Amino acid sequence: MCLGIPGELVGPAGGHDDLALVEVSGVRRRVNIGLLEGQELNPGDWVLVHVGFALSKISEDEAQAVLAYLEGLGQPYEDEIDALRASDIT
């Protein structure tokens, strides 16, 4: 199963304008924000992350609702978080 997971923008990742540091369920990773070019992004904003890309900017309320739903999935959600821990964009 492939999931889009809400992540909170922490700040720039450094080195590349298209990369930002995002925290997803306690895991910090660099994600590509190039698809959101032209949108204002600030630390504390929420984005929907899938396979290392921020797909859209979402509200905090939507992010919290999606996270609650995903956590309720149990093992598929845990598997996705484990895969996120093991990956990183370099």
From TrEMBL:
<dbReference type="Pfam" id="PF01455">
    <property type="entry name" value="HupF_HypC"/>
</dbReference>
<dbReference type="GO" id="GO:0051604">
    <property type="term" value="P:protein maturation"/>
</dbReference>
<dbReference type="GO" id="GO:0005506">
    <property type="term" value="F:iron ion binding"/>
</dbReference>
<dbReference type="GO" id="GO:1902670">
    <property type="term" value="F:carbon dioxide binding"/>
</dbReference>
<comment type="similarity">
    <text>Belongs to the HupF/HypC family.</text>
</comment>
<protein>
    <submittedName>
        <fullName>Hydrogenase expression/formation protein HypC</fullName>
    </submittedName>
</protein>
<dbReference type="InterPro" id="IPR001109">
    <property type="entry name" value="Hydrogenase_HupF/HypC"/>
</dbReference>
